[in-house]
């Protein structure tokens, strides 16, 4: 019986990779806070699934209420673990209208923007969902206020997402390094399973809601047709699940602007920016169709954006068609 190799845990990874580097000291504590919160959210997501079975009597309000509670519960969990990390100065969250300013002096504080549970409406059909985090270092000597969170994605120092699927995987990106960790539910520890992630050279999939074709403008409709003619369609309807598959297998995700959503559907600060950071560090690209996502100067915490991200050559080709007018 082969002896299972000892995998590097997330704690060992952040300690060995970052502990003594000034530009990342403290960042490890933020990542471990995300990991701790993810363990707790994963347990809730499983419970909600079981609760859904209990709700089989058709009382959809039970599931509806549980799913709603799950969004709020996930938000509360991550606000708690991040605030207690001792290295987070402020938190922006899809579930919370205003920024959470963490009390007390935080020397080397980070600012975290998060979608604590994206795609939670998929829980009642047992589809993978996820949590998404963008991490910025607060400016030196800055007294953090609401405007401190409106930073362009190109100033992120790290980003992470967790996909709660057939396994629970945390993907962590820092400059030029993307690494995946899988949760051992028994021990509650994440260990390295996907070192040095790079998006494959060949694009296999395109992920878009084909039902929106009727409301796309002509150049965008043409761009989607080109994708349809070249790649296989894979669309879960859960951003993190679609993105994670495309990152590992090669693919492009597109939620462009349309007649009903002039600014797109997805959120800039805690969906597009973090995933745009991850995909760029893995060799891919992220665009609105007209502009690099990470270069957008944000105006509002919850502003939306069109989002096209994945294989760099395919994103660039898609953008050239969309922006040709
Ligand atoms: P549509 C889930 O609600 C979500 O915010 C993302 O996770 C997902 O990519 C998108 O919406 C799906 O939107 O319009 O295709 O249902």
What does the model show?
The protein has 325 residues and is an alpha+beta fold. The protein folds into 2 domains: 10-194, Fructose-1,6-Bisphosphatase, Chain A, domain 1, CATH 3.30.540.10; 205-324, D-Maltodextrin-Binding Protein, domain 2 (3-Layer(aba) Sandwich), CATH 3.40.190. It has 7 helices and 15 strands. The strands form 3 sheets. An 8-stranded mixed β-sheet has the order 2-1-3-4-5-6-7-8, sandwiched between helices. Strands 10-9-11-15-13 form a 5-stranded mixed β-sheet, with helices on both faces. A two-stranded antiparallel sheet has the order 12-14. A hairpin with a 4-residue loop joins strand 7 and strand 8 (189-194). Helix 1 runs antiparallel to helix 2 and helix 4 packs antiparallel against helix 7. The longest helix has 28 residues, at 27-54. It starts with 9 loop residues before the first helix and ends with a helix. Bound molecules: 6-O-phosphono-alpha-D-fructofuranose. Residues 118-119, 121, 209, 237-239, 265 line the site of 6-O-phosphono-alpha-D-fructofuranose.
């Amino acid at each position: 019986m082969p002896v299972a190799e000892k995998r590097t845990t997330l704690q060992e990874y952040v300690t060995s990779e970052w502990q003594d580097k000034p530009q990342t000291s403290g960042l490890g504590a933020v990542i471990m806070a995300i990991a701790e919160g993810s363990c707790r959210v994963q347990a809730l997501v499983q419970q909600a699934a079981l609760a859904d079975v209990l709700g089989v009597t058709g009382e959809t309000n039970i599931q509806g209420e549980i799913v709603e509670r799950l969004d709020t519960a996930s938000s509360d969990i991550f606000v708690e673990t991040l605030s207690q990390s001792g290295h987070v100065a402020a938190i922006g969250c899809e579930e919370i209208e205003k920024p959470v300013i963490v009390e007390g002096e935080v020397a080397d504080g980070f600012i975290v923007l998060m979608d604590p549970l994206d795609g939670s409406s998929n829980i009642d059909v047992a589809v993978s969902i996820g949590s998404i985090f963008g991490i910025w270092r607060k400016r030196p000597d800055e007294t953090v206020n609401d405007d401190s969170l409106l930073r362009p994605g190109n100033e992120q120092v790290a980003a992470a997402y967790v996909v709660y699927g057939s396994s629970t995987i945390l993907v962590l990106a820092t400059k030029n390094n993307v690494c995946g960790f899988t949760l051992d539910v028994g021990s509650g520890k994440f260990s390295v399973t996907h070192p040095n992630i790079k998006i494959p050279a060949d694009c296999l999939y395109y992920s878009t809601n084909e039902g929106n074709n009727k409301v796309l403008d002509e150049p965008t409709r043409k761009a989607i047709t080109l994708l349809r003619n070249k790649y296989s369609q894979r669309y879960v309807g859960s951003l993190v699940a679609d993105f994670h598959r495309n990152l590992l297998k090669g693919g492009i995700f597109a939620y462009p602007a349309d007649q009903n959503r002039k600014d797109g559907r997805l959120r800039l600060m805690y969906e597009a920016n973090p995933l745009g950071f991850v995909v760029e560090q893995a060799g891919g690209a992220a665009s609105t169709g007209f502009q690099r996502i990470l270069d957008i100067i944000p105006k509002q915490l919850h502003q939306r954006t069109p989002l096209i991200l994945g294989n760099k050559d395919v994103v660039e080709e898609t953008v050239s068609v969309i922006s040709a007018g």
